[in-house]
Automatic annotation (TrEMBL):
Family: Belongs to the glutamine synthetase family.
GO BP terms: glutamine biosynthetic process
Keywords annotated in UniProt: ATP-binding, Cytoplasm, Ligase, Nucleotide-binding
EC number(s) reported in the record: 6.3.1.2
A GO term, aspect molecular function: ATP binding
Compartment(s) of residence: Cytoplasm
Record note on quaternary structure: Homooctamer and homotetramer.
GO cellular component, one term: cytoplasm
Catalysed reactions listed for this entry: L-glutamate + NH4(+) + ATP = L-glutamine + ADP + phosphate + H(+)
Protein name as it appears in the record: glutamine synthetase
Classification via PROSITE patterns: GLNA_1, GS_BETA_GRASP, GS_CATALYTIC
């Protein structure tokens, strides 16, 4: 039987920003393994801030499996972390998402390529031309020599893995890009965002490039944010009721719930979000909740199609930042939606 390289991927216990971890196990299978065929594994939680040395074992339970086209017989195994008794580890944010197959999420993941301490394309010790031509730009002056090559490679690897990768584009700042992932079911898109993040970070290792997931990495003296766009992870969401029934009265109740739980949302929408949600650069202030049709300066953007379809369809929460944990974002959004009664 062929031997497969199983790359087990999980999130560590660092706060406020969990890191991706992975390690390889070799196993024999008659063909590409199914999820139910993959064994649980363990790791040293004392080295990842998930256990003490005197009782260090944590368990890895596979939750999704994908082919890895960068390795012969390669397998990507997304895992959640369990305690030795099989219960969810306190760092297991995936376990906070209610199960709901009728909920769909689409995440717009922004990031910066970083090399030698600065965004890719920034001149040493200085700044490039102001923002304007970088968003969806074409040509060396806007994009540079390497960024598009990395984005294309990442896209191909994600598609080979079967991720529901929806698209990509250069973003507003120099060295800033975005990709989009969509998934049906309350956990699928979040699983795939984490796998796509892993694949991008691993791809750029060989080029000496890091990925800056931070929401406002370009800062001046005394950590002051400069006049460069921050990075978000806008969350597009819908439930079966929103798509099939909806209605203006339900929508207004829904927005009332999002306003009520504003602080709970901001708490899980990523660290340092006060630097990004300023009311500038297509954001609403962190201490306000607003919504508006096609308004990219609102907390919640309402697509024209949503209103034209009788207040049915999806909505976009623009507050989650690029470093946010998509598991926490999905869980909080769905809990708020579920707090609104339906007939």
């Amino acid at each position: 039987m062929p031997k497969y390289k199983l790359e087990y991927i999980w999130l560590d216990g660092y706060s406020p920003l969990a890191n991706l971890r992975s390690k390889t196990q070799i196993k024999e299978f008659a063909s590409f393994p199914k999820l139910e065929e993959l064994p649980q594994w363990n790791f040293d939680g004392s080295s990842t801030r998930q256990a003490e040395g005197k009782s260090a074992d944590c368990l890895l339970r596979p939750v999704a499996v994908y082919p890895d086209s960068t390795r012969r017989n390669g397998v990507l195994v997304m895992c959640e972390v369990l305690l030795p008794d099989g219960s969810p580890h306190p760092s297991n944010t995936r376990a906070t998402i209610p199960d709901d197959e009728g909920t769909w999420f689409g995440f717009e993941q922004e990031f910066f390529f970083y090399k030698d301490g600065a965004p890719l394309g920034f001149p040493p010790g200085g700044y490039p031309a102001p923002q304007g031509l970088y968003y969806t730009g074409v040509g060396y002056q806007s994009i540079g020599a390497l960024a598009r090559e990395l984005v294309e490679q990442h896209m191909d690897i994600c598609l080979d893995a079967g991720l529901n990768y929806e698209g990509t584009n250069a973003e507003v700042a120099k060295g800033q890009w975005e990709f989009q992932i969509f998934g049906k079911g309350s956990k699928k898109a979040a699983d795939e965002i984490w796998v796509a993040r892993y694949l991008l970070s691993r791809l750029t290792e060989r080029y000496g490039i890091d990925i800056a997931w931070e929401c406002k990495p370009i800062r001046g003296p005394f950590n002051e944010p400069l006049d460069w766009n921050g990075s978000g992870m806008h969350a597009n969401f819908s439930t079966a009721y929103m798509r099939e029934v909806g209605g203006k009265a339900y929508f207004e109740q829904l927005m009332g719930a999002f306003s009520k739980y504003m602080d709970e949302h901001i708490a899980v929408y990523g660290p340092d979000n006060h630097m990004r949600l300023t009311g500038l650069h297509e954001t609403q202030s962190i201490d306000k909740f607003t919504y508006g049709v096609a308004d990219r300066g609102s907390s919640i953007r309402i697509p024209h199609a949503f209103v034209n379809n009788g207040y049915r369809g999806y909505l976009e929460d623009r507050r989650p930042n690029s470093a946010a944990d998509p598991y926490l974002v999905a869980g909080r959004i769905l809990k708020t939606v579920q707090s609104v009664p339906t007939p």
